[in-house]
Amino acid sequence: MAKKSKKQQSGGTPATVALTAAGAEYTVHSYEHDPAHPSYGEEAAEAMGVSPDRVFKTLVADVDGALTVAVVPVAGQLDLKALAAAVGGKRATMADPALAERTTGYVRGGISPLGQRKKLPTVLDASASAHPTICVSAGRRGLEVELSPETLTKLTEATLAPIGRP
After folding, report:
1. Which segments within the chain are labelled E, that is strand?
2. What is the tens place of the pLDDT at every residue in 60-107?
3. pLDDT tens-digit profile of 116-132?
4. pLDDT at position 37, please?
5. Are 29 and 16 in contact (CB under 8 A)?
């Protein structure tokens, strides 16, 4: 039987459990989430003292009827046309938040691209490659994981594409 890491024993999220199981290198950052803050991603960047272009938000979109995960810098926005093109689709819209939560197993503001209930096609904004590490949600508000873009791409089987815009 495999030995559980301390992260798993202390009730890690599905994202941290997936990272540990994969033997990936990562760092967990936690901070006190303020429900009144207008932006989960900007709050994370401020709380961790990290540039907003290194903190990425996880969004769920509907591309031609199929849910797709988009991971873009919190400093910008998702370009829905670019996301559709990246996965060979014609049209993308933001997914219904309740459907995104049910499908991923995470709550809005805490959706991680890792350890989702159902594996969805994932696209990581190409700007991630400019950084040695980036931060994404660890699966709940107030918890982020820092890891290399290569690790995130490998574990989510993501496509790298320019899907973000300022």
Report:
1. 27-30, 56-63, 66-73, 77-78, 92-94, 122-125, 134-140, 143-147, 159-161, 164-165
2. 999 999 999 999 999 999 999 999 999 999 999 999 999 999 999 999
3. 999 999 999 999 999 99
4. 87
5. no
Distances (CA, A) of 133 to 28, 48, 54, 149: 12, 14, 7, 6
How does residue 39 score in pLDDT terms, banded at 50, 70 and 90? confident
Q: What is each CA distance from 120 to 44, 48, 113, in whole angstroms?
A: 24, 28, 9
Characterize the bridge pairing of strands 56-63 and 66-73.
antiparallel
Contact of 52 with 41, CB cutoff 8 Å: yes
CA distance 57 to 81: 18
User: Can you tell me the distance from the alpha carbon of 131 to that of 73, in angstroms, rounded to the nearest whole number?
Assistant: 12
pLDDT for the residue numbered 41: 86
Strands 92-94, 27-30: pairing kind: unpaired
Q: Which amino acid is at 34?
A: D
